[in-house]
Amino acid sequence: MRLLHTADWHLGKVLKGVDRTPEIGEALKALLEIVRREGVDLVLVSGDLFDRPQPSAEAEALAVEFFLELKALGVPALVIAGNHDPKERLEALAPLFALVGVEVRGRPLFREEGGVVRVGGLEAALLPFVSERVLVKKTFQEAEDRHRSYAEAMRRILGNLQSPLMLGHFAVEGARPGAGEFAFHLTGSYAVPASALPLAARYLALGHIHRQQQVSEAPVAWYPGSLVQLDFGEGEEAERGALLVELPPSGPAQVHPIRERWGKPLRTYRLALEELDGRLGELERFPGYLRLVVEGRLSPEQKDRLFRHLPHLLAVEAAGALPVVEAGERGPELSLLEAYGRYLKERGREEEALLERLEAVLREVELETLAPGT
Ligand SMILES: [Mn+2]
């Protein structure tokens, strides 16, 4: 059986006012070409199809188009939600997706509840993102306790889902981050030790970390990486793309990495103020998006001039300081959740758990407002 494993599309991603969705859409077309060319039997999408709980209509349209094209090719797909996805929405749409041969799980289920499905004569376990907040309820626990109880709870869940094939969206201990975004999970060690990975799996299709890498040999477990470079914090050189997986009738999977450079590159230039004029030509010619970190004091007029001169310049920051100027004003208005995310980021606290808590509160308020009789 031939599988194409992909994850972390982040459709709807807006980087400092620039919507990356069209670039991600191009990468999805390239994936379909691989499915066609390589005679893929099954596609695995291991979470973070979307970048936020309320994705743009264009983002949704591109995902729908992708799965309809797969259907036209006669190729089924397994899909799990990641931490960025509209989990409930995916869950609600699951019966509709099933009509085109796509099995979608928005929230985690145990084996007996349908956490394991059959596809092409094969059993597959589907484990969408499980929030640390839900798994570790006592927020006043010692940090070390919290991380240990998270790992223990994940070990139990994984043990319950033994299958030859498994999809999961979580960080495995020791994984090399692709993005600043994930440093929290790794250093904060909300990560699953490799010893907790289910040995019955002949292939474990992971998502969450944006750098392509193998994280375990037994069971064989890989992250395919994101489709495009999503953030300046992700190295331009970090491996990403997709994975072509051969699953023989027995024995472990063989994985053939597909390394691609879909989308535009993002590059940070660190320059002294005096160098700026001399290197303007080089900056102009860079084919992707730019961030400048400048040593020395730039006047507001100088910044304006830079933004006017370099349309692909997205941010100018002072070296050693928090971001001071952003081109974000060009973009759509920020939602409350995005604004809070940006606030946390600017303070160096990209904590997924805090964002999720705010999201849950907002949802509760919404439900209360919409509840009948109120
Ligand atoms: Mn992701």
Notes on the structure:
The chain is of the alpha/beta class and 374 residues long. The protein folds into 3 domains: 2-259, 4-Layer Sandwich (Purple Acid Phosphatase, chain A, domain 2); 266-330, Double Stranded RNA Binding Domain; 336-370. It is 32% helix and 23% strand. The protein is built from 10 helices and 18 strands. It has helices at 21-38, 57-73, 87-98, 132-135, 143-160, 183-187, 280-285, 300-309, 336-346, 352-370; strands spanning 2-6, 14-15, 18-19, 42-46, 77-80, 102-105, 116-119, 122-127, 165-169, 203-207, 213-216, 221-223, 241-246, 254-259, 266-272, 289-295, 313-318, 323-326. Strands 6-5-4-1-13-14 form a 6-stranded mixed β-sheet. β11 (213-216) and β12 (221-223) form a beta hairpin. It is globular and about 65 Å long. The model is unreliable at 180-187, 322-333 and 367-374 (pLDDT under 50). The protein binds manganese (II) ion.
Secondary structure: elements and pairs:
Elements (H helix, E strand, L loop, with lengths): L1 E5 L7 E2 L2 E2 L1 H18 L3 E5 L10 H17 L3 E4 L6 H12 L3 E4 L10 E4 L2 E6 L4 H4 L7 H18 L4 E5 L13 H5 L15 E5 L5 E4 L4 E3 L17 E6 L7 E6 L6 E7 L7 H6 L3 E7 L4 H10 L3 E6 L4 E4 L9 H11 L5 H19 L4
Parallel strand pairs: 1-4, 4-5, 5-6, 8-9, 9-10, 10-12, 15-16, 16-17
Antiparallel strand pairs: 1-13, 2-3, 7-8, 11-12, 13-14, 17-18
Helix pairs in contact: 1-2
Bound molecules: manganese (II) ion.
Manganese (II) ion binds next to loops.
